[in-house]
Amino acid sequence: MSHFKINKKALMGAALLATAPTVKADGTVRSSTEGSKSKRGINHLTLEEAPLENITVCVPGKSMAGLTGDFRYLPDKLAVVHNPREANYVKMTFIVSHMNAVDYDRTLLLAYSQNLSPFPQISTPKSINKFELDLESVEIVGVYDVSSFGMKAQPETRILVNPTPRIKYEFDVNLDILETLRMMNSGNDTIYVQAALIKKSDYEAGIWNSMILSEVDTIHFVEDKCPETMIVEEGKSPVRVIEICADNDGRFGSCGDDRGK
């Protein structure tokens, strides 16, 4: 069962992804992007999450630096708190950034799995981020059409050299609270989320090696309250946690009586 509410188009996306040619686990995976410089929108995307309704996001305290009412600067590993016994729906916002303007249509996919693969199971030579989800358990949260849009690189000026416009997509997702409760009760309470952008014609043809990917974000479901500390990096000491909630206008900050409810 999916932990998100998904539609027929998403199910088709999962079926297509499941038929993608896989890479053998022989330790010899090579990519044209190995050692490449990061180029936003060209060889990678950025994925972020934010609370929306009946949910609290738990983040390491230092990640609050630079935090405003907008969605940014949250870490790749976070926990989310919701109480399925008190709320019958929960919403999160996912934000995919750094999609460059192009003159052709593309498809954006948001996928998750409860397991990571020890090696990339799909070759993505154009992306510095590799496909890390396990195809055996992958599910598609959503499949979104990204039409070509009318912004083009601008002429050079004295202080700006050919800036390339980019866009970001934000979409709200309902969590399946009965399933997340089952996960929390079973102890298998973590999912891994990754976004992918691919030319629409390649998506429809099942040609996956042209897609670029976001980093993998880790979401840990907890009940009642945030943990006091979180481990940000393996082998390092845990750091204290700060709670983030959304207010009635969708802006977020530290939790209070009027937030996260």
TrEMBL record:
Span of the signal peptide: 1-25
Domain of life assignment: Bacteria
The entry's keywords: Signal
Protein known as: Uncharacterized protein
The keyword Signal is annotated on this UniProt entry: yes
Species in which this protein is naturally found: Candidatus Marithioploca araucensis
